[in-house]
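Dear colleague,

Following up on Tuesday's group meeting, I ran the structure prediction for the two-component complex that the binding team flagged. I've pasted the input sequences exactly as they went in, so you can double-check that nothing got truncated or mislabelled along the way. The structure tokens for the whole assembly follow below. Feel free to forward this to whoever is handling the docking comparison.

Inputs:
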Amino acid sequence: MSLLLTFLQNAISQGVSILFGASGEIVTEKSGNLNLGIPGIMYMGGISGLMAAFFYEKSTGHPNAFIGLLISLLVTMLASAFGGLIYSVLTITLRANQNVVGLALTTFGVGFGNFFGGSISKLAGGVGQISVKTTASAYRAKIPGLSGIPVIGDLLFSYGFLTYFSVILAVLLAFFLKKTRKGLNLRAIGEDPGAADAAGINVSRYKYTATISGAAIAGLGGLYFVMEYLGGTWNNNGFGDRGWLAIALVILALWKPVNAIWGSFLFGGLYILYIYLPGLTRATQELCKMLPYVVTIIVLILSSKRNKHENQPPASLGEAYFREER
Amino acid sequence: MEQINAIELKNVTKRFGEVIANDSVNFSVRKGEILSVLGENGSGKTTLMNMLSGIYFPDEGQIFINGNEVMIRSPKDSFALGIGMIHQHFKLIDILTAAENIILGLQGSKTLKMNQVHEEINKLTAEYGFDLNPSQKIYNMSVSQKQTVEIVKVLYRGADILILDEPTAVLTPQETKKLFDVLRNMKKAGKSIIIITHKLNEVLELSDRVTVLRKGKYIGTVNTAEATADSLTEMMVGEKVKLDIDRTEPSNTEKRIEMRGITCRNREGLKVLKEASFQAYSGEILGIAGIAGSGQKELLEAIAGLQTIESGEILYYAPDGSTNKISDMKATDIRELKIHLSFVPEDRLGMGLVGSMDLTDNMMLRSYKEGKHFFVDRKKPKNLANSIVEKLDVITPGVDTPVRHLSGGNVQKVLVGREIASNPTVLMVAYPVRGLDINSSYTIYNLLNEQKEKGVAVICVGEDLDVLLDLCDRILVLNSGRVAGVLDARKTTKEEIGLMMTSDRKGAHKHEQRSGK
């Protein structure tokens, strides 16, 4: 029983990063931009927040956890939004190939994270590990009272605020896409920017806004990882391929943020399942780690078989838009 | 009497790189009139209208709306001036409902109140006599329903000036009539309507005045009452054109192709041909009519051996008396029997010709297997290319020019010319004149007629019913993959064919949707 509880808890905490990444990517893809730079942007977001918290804690004798939290949150969102801006300028204004730009951004972002992660470790004294305990404690604060309830408290109320925020954000995004005028316009752009343009929608502005805010949301996934999951430290390449899982999750969720919620917990569970399955060798462990991708492939096959129009990717995904093209 | 024009253009010029699409065009639309803009493909009609709707920005010239000079920088500006454009290729989002498409991009309450929108739309459709379900998804709609959505969309935005780009190109005769009724209602309500077209009979039937463009230049405007089909064609083409097709009585008719109960599925597993049966005879032109995607392509491809046949058989009766079952044969073997498919797909170069290769090489695509030498023989194909250029008046700098540098009409002449050169016994063509100017169209019609007189069985898929009626001997009507009937082209009418094309069958719209994609 307690093993199952730990498994579920860990599955959820694994899923949060992926959920932020997927939510950000869904917003981005709804505008027709396939931002494969999301994994890199999540690295950038994570390291930026950590660095901000580190310098804040270093600069004052008695760091305040709440101020550290605000600073790191803000810096993370700015840094990842900057990543989104780079992508937007290149693909929207200069109409560069989206895949190439995205992959380059991911390579850049991972390097950016590891470089500065190593640098601040040096600044911290060179022992290899840095720690922003005070700020991290704010991220890790559980809900007082409710988290004390046995089992239910552990399962539902034992997480930091970013976990709840990720779920609420996904629900809000679903509402935005489905029920608001701006959401309708955004979906239209992803389907057919030409038609949206003819309807009087400013295509470039929407694409920029969606891509940049999508990147900012995804960056929170990186921040969650360094602050709540790792407890305010950096581990080179520690974030692993969670960014790619986030992109796979977008497909699994059929571009619907609400599906991404349960999908992220499923992915989180599959991602760590190998730890809980007894009797796995190193080789079979690796096979086990493939499960999230296998599930994605199965979903891809099923959804293309069903051939339902609403479940298809945004029709203009991956294509640049130029009004006067003939 | 000075009348304020709803729209007035003065010396408007638009260039695309080196190409001048509109060369200092002047033109005006009065309030409450229907104006036709007439011109051949490439005469700059659509470019001109796109400048009014904010898709393109003019390089030079002035635009006046209701007497005031304006700048139209984007579709938004255009809406604000009360201009609504219904594009030839509908600008609709497939996965959204009609209502969602209609309110797309509009200002208003932040959250969507669809019930209210539906009510407003229903009120509007009742007023002008449209038939529209606001909550229907676009991908479930027929072409004419989609067009209705487009028109309601601009009316919902309060447009006073409507521009329709080739609105009848995809409609059946019945749907066209309904559209014209709606347009006349709008004119009565005081709206100005511009209709872009190249169909003369529609111009004469509907419009008050006609403006003619030729090769990007403004030629003139005439009152429809004073115009005739001949005078308008002359303005359009710049010279007198004989508009009659010389149809001879079929002679020496022998059965060539017999299709028996052919059923085919497309890639998505949907039946695109259902138990299709017919016969084609030598010395006649068999026309095939139907709404786009009713199985025309599959029918021809089944004969040519390019389509997997689920059930049924196709027989070929050769002139020497032998009979072959071609439904079991490979495409190359069928070609050996001199059954030729000259398919002209939407992008013309997609099938049949290779754009970056020159005329000679494109001739060789058909003949490279002939001869026994290691090296290819370029002489014969070159002679063939030269003779096609000469015989069909292909305008090209030489036979070494890559085909994609030729204009659409010339590409089509090369393609059809090559197929004819090998003396086929069965010649199948699909949309042979799509995108061609009047002169080239008639060259192609005459070519087909020549083949018929030579005793070839010609099968021609067409989209213009008027032309099919003039050109063919018999017309086979397809209705969502079924053969609805075969009519005598000399006796039937456009309305009869139109009814057979659309007469209700379950799943008709759905099918058309899929293959239209």
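Chain B has a mean pLDDT of 83.

Cheers,
M.
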